[in-house]
């Protein structure tokens, strides 16, 4: 084993993980105050019996409940409107319960309740105003296993359209104060969403694992996260309503993916995600799921063009292949082959949509490529190599 490199590891949320942990929420809120703003999606949680129970428990605990509902991916206008509406309400704590978009919405609202004006000047890629980090305490409660937003310091806000963008509001203080991860909340997540979210978590773990910013700490967490993907992914897709064990593995893998991406960054798939998601109504998890195979193949081929220089990244891809396939590989080539076989197999099994299903055409490639990047990929792909990834999944 090689020497341990120097590294820095960012702060983490206080984590409460396990089936039934939602019951802790009223007391966790009460520790911060008696007025809570609950941010949810328009779909499942607010229609569930758990929501009615939570409202009763909050009332019993003497906590006054304010609510906001986000549909789809949060826009800057939505965050501005909610922050303006609740600034005078002395909110002690914001709680986001939902998928990645809801968690990002709650994170951004908690970051703007104590600021004046719009969130727009603070968005990366839009303006350069620095946020001072002052925010209202935030508890993130995921109901899907994907983005890992319960552990990250950024909130992605979206303008979808011809001049669309996705941009992050980011500050070290925006890591949620608490991540309350209750796998029971993911049981009702439908198979297509389970697949897309799971492939997002897988992509985040794999991209963080081979990232140029990876550290011994992120390597340990990312490789372990991949083991939990193996343990849960297909079972959660095929029998997710009943398989709490599979859901738990995926919830843990997603949590680890958020921790690792916050510390090691991401790669070329996420370098495509901003423009693709900004220009077209394609869910983030579908972007990841549809591109991860072609992007990994392109990365491995590019790394092999100078295999001596890129030995460590190729060995990591090979180890990921062994973990995800559950097979042993005696050479780096064999491990990378296992990785590609497994990714191709999972993409086929889960029937992840192609780009054209969301109206993306070859004529759109130039403007997509203009805004895409390699992020912290272990090798830099040129424009032609990037275009071939899109071609492979059109
Ligand atoms: Fe992602």
Topology (SSEs and partners):
Elements: E1 14-17, H1 25-30, E2 35-41, H2 49-60, E3 64-70, H3 76-86, E4 93-98, H4 100-112, E5 138-142, E6 154-159, E7 165-170, E8 178-181, H5 191-210, H6 216-239, H7 244-264, H8 268-279, H9 284-304, H10 311-325, H11 332-349, H12 365-371, H13 383-392
Parallel strand pairs: 1-8, 2-3, 2-4, 4-5, 5-8
Antiparallel strand pairs: 6-7
Helix pairs in contact: 3-4, 5-6, 5-7, 5-9, 6-7, 6-10, 8-9, 8-12, 9-11, 9-13, 10-11
The structure holds fe (ii) ion (FE2).
Note down, in words, how this protein is organized.
The longest helix has 24 residues, at 216-239. This protein has a 6-stranded parallel β-sheet, with helices on both faces. The protein has helices at residues 25-30, 49-60, 76-86, 100-112, 191-210, 216-239, 244-264, 268-279, 284-304, 311-325, 332-349, 365-371, 383-392, and strands at 14-17, 35-41, 64-70, 93-98, 138-142, 154-159, 165-170, 178-181. Helices cover 48% and strands 11% of the residues. It is an alpha/beta fold. It has 13 helices and 8 strands. Helix 2 links the parallel strand 2 (35-41) and strand 3.
């Amino acid at each position: 084993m090689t020497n341990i490199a120097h590294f820095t590891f960012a702060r983490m949320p206080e984590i409460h993980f396990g089936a039934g942990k939602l019951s802790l929420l009223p007391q966790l809120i009460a520790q911060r105050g008696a007025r809570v703003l609950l941010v949810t999606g328009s779909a499942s949680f607010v229609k569930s019996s758990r929501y009615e129970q939570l409202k009763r428990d909050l009332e019993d605990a003497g906590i006054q409940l304010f609510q906001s509902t986000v549909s789809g991916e949060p826009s800057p206008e939505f965050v501005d409107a909610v922050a303006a509406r609740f600034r005078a309400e002395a909110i002690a704590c914001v709680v986001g319960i939902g998928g990645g978009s809801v968690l990002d919405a709650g994170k951004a609202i908690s970051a703007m309740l104590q600021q004046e004006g719009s969130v727009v000047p603070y968005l990366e890629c839009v303006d350069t105003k620095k946020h001072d980090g002052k925010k209202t305490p935030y508890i993130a409660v995921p109901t899907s296993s994907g983005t890992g937003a319960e552990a990250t310091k950024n909130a992605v806000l979206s303008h979808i359209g011809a001049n669309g963008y996705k941009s992050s509001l980011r500050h070290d203080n925006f890591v949620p104060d608490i991540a309350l991860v209750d796998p029971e909340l993911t049981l009702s997540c439908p198979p297509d969403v389970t697949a897309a979210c799971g492939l997002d978590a897988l992509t985040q773990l794999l991209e963080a694992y081979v990232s140029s910013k990876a550290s011994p700490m992120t390597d340990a967490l990312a490789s372990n996260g991949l083991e939990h993907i193996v343990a849960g992914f297909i079972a959660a897709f095929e029998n997710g309503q009943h398989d709490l064990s599979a859901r738990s593995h995926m919830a843990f893998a997603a949590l680890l993916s958020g921790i690792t991406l916050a510390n090691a960054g991401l790669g070329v798939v996420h370098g495509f995600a901003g423009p693709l998601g900004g220009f077209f109504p394609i869910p983030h998890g579908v972007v990841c799921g549809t591109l991860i195979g072609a992007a990994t193949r392109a990365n491995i081929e590019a790394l092999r063009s100078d295999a001596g220089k890129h030995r460590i990244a190729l060995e990591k891809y090979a180890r990921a292949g062994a973990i995800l396939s559950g097979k042993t590989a005696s050479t780096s080539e064999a491990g990378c082959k296992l990785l590609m076989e497994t990714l191709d197999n999972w993409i086929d099994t889960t029937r992840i949509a192609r780009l054209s299903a969301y109206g993306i055409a070859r004529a759109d490639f130039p403007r997509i490529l203009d805004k895409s990047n390699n992020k912290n990929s272990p090798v830099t792909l040129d424009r032609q190599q990037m275009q071939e990834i899109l071609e492979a999944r059109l």
